[in-house]
Amino acid sequence: MAAGTQKSSLIARRQYWGLVFVLPTVIFFIVFFLYPIISGIYYSLTDFTLLKPPVWVGLQNYQDLLKDRLFIKSISVTLGYVAGTTIPAWILSLFAAVVFFQKFRGREILKVLFFSPVLPSLIVVAIVWRILLQPGGILTTVLRPLTGSAEINWLDNPTLSPISMIIITNWTIIPFYMLIWLSGLTAIPEELRDAARVDGATRVQSFFRVELPLLRPTGVFIAAISTINAFQGFTLQYAISPGKGGPIDVNTTLGLLIWKYGFQYYRMGDASAVSMVLFAMIMIVVLIQLWLSRSDQFSLN
Amino acid sequence: MSNYAPTLNPPTGTQFQQTVAATRWRKRMTSLMWFSIALVLTVTFAFPLYFMVISSFKLDREVLSASTQLIPANFQGLTNYQRAFDVVPLARFFFNSALMAVIDVIVTVFFSALAGYGFAKYRFRGSRIMFLFILITMTVPFQILLVPLFIEVRSFGWDDSYAGLIIPGIMNAFGVFMMRQFAYNIPDELLDAARIDGASEFRIFWRIVFPLLAPASASLAIIIFLFSWNNFLWPLIIIKDQNLAPIQVGITAFTQTHSAEPQWGVAMAVSTLATLPVAVLFVFFQRYFIEGLLMSGIKG
């Protein structure tokens, strides 16, 4: 009996090693996540410019945002960027995955090269595309048979500039999403395709009736991460559009607006309020994703 | 696949040979079609990086010329690369990036494995709530933290320093989550056997668990390296001193030049160098690279 209690207390004491093991990480996230997020909420309710201590103003910053034309514009810029970099990327990456799922000679080497846009940083991407998108540059030349114009202001034209951001972003993300689709396709057991074939389904039917429904968790996942990433659009708009988010702010996403208010004008209160709005928008996406994937047992784990 | 379809009248003789030949022909055409589509996709997507590399061997004015030279007409050798080191403190930028990425990788992998193992194999008060807390940090994008984190780090006196550059990003919730999944699969018997032999709990982690987590650690290390090396936003706001800037921030010197004659050849050389470490990792550790990317589900 005595030995039993001794043993169980030993096991109980041993369990506390778990606490020792997780503690450094937990403390790190308290200091560099919990504290900043709470102070961020607080700063969003203050007038704060770094030069003087924050002064409580209640919801004033949020009310000001509603009248702030740049903020309103920034919301529509962000939503446009989200629309342009999620739906096309979803469809095109699925198409590319289907292509690279087929059996043909040279597939592996082509796949590796196709994947190359994932490697460079967005800053490098921005520098390279700035050259490709020169008014009389390479993309203009390639599209000349279609457009008929020798000079296209991809970056300086207020209508074209957001489209250019969307083209570049799609270029960087499609290979990565292709890879996710591909791993989903590979996970589908071969017997299911064979069964559909035996039942007389054509390849196209088998794809839309058998494989695509099975890929639903993958599809929801890609839709969610592409939307969340798009809401955070910053680096391309910062580095490639003229005047950081221009021309006339057509590329000032919420992510860029946080940077402008916070680190160009040092209006930390306003920047924090914009952060909270962005946070709320992203949380809505996360909740929709959770709701959509509620029936997929796998995607939640 | 086609041999699954039952045939009522098995073809014989020449008829059979014709069928076989026709099937083979059709298969070859299908595979040629897929190859062609894949080729078009690959050329489209690989072209910008190909352009970057060849342009790094061109004269500045030739980089912009619309008549794309797929092979440089005046091959410049490594001239642009040499010039790059004269224009900006490039060696310093690379040193800063490497320092940040290596510290990030080592600390993240070690503490993620330790915490992941702690969450997977020990029952202690508060473990669930602490794990949930770490999970939640994953759903909050970095931009939300940008302003308050900057103010906090500044209040520590860490702005414009290696500490400010590196420490706030030194741990990763995704790493903890991933390591916990892998640590679950380690059999308890193995750990208990070591306990009976009198090994301490930390020794069990260091000598048994950590080596077993090596494949997961490799994927995590590569992903953290990729994120850290390509990270831009945090270094941009926390570093003002050019001598402390990592390459991704240092390189912006070339995006903002509005001088009469921007050195595009040099910019392409620097871009190529900045991409090289990630490309090398990808080529040599493709499997871990892709596994890590798939698990993380985010491209930094």
How many individual domains of chain B?
2
Strand residue percentage of chain A: under 5%
Biggest interface goes to: A-B, 100 and 95 residues
Structural class of chain B: mainly alpha
Give the strand order, joined by hyphens, for the main sheet of chain A: 1-2
Low-confidence residue ranges of chain B: none
CATH topology of the largest domain in chain B: MetI-like fold
Identify low-pLDDT runs of chain A. 297-301
Classified by CATH, the class of chain A is Mainly Alpha
Number of helices of chain A: 13
Can you identify the CATH class of the largest domain in chain B?
Mainly Alpha
Spatial separation of the terminal alpha carbons of chain B:
41 Å
- What is the CA-based Rg of chain B, rounded? 27 Å
The proportion of residues forming helix of chain A, as a percent range, comes to over 70%
CATH H-level homologous superfamily name of chain A: MetI-like
Give the tally of β-strands of chain B. 0
* Shape label of chain B: flat
Q: Quick one: overall form of chain A?
A: globular
Domain count of chain A, please report it.
1
Using the coordinates shown, work out and report the CATH topology of chain A. Answer: MetI-like fold
Oligomer: heterodimer
Give a structural overview.
The complex is a heterodimer of chains A (301) and B (300). By secondary structure, chain A is mainly alpha-helical. Chain A has a single domain, classed as MetI-like (MetI-like fold, Orthogonal Bundle), CATH 1.10.3720. Chain A has 13 helices and two strands, in the order αββαααααααααααα. Chain A has a two-stranded antiparallel sheet with strand order 1-2. Chain B is mainly α. Chain B has two domains: 2-79, no CATH class; 86-296, MetI-like fold. Chain B has helices at 13-55, 60-64, 79-87, 90-121, 127-139, 142-155, 162-166, 173-184, 188-196, 201-212, 214-230, 233-238, 247-250, 252-255, 264-284, 286-296. At the A-B interface, helix 1, helix 3, helix 4, helix 5 and helix 6 of A face helix 1, helix 4, helix 5, helix 6 and helix 10 of B.
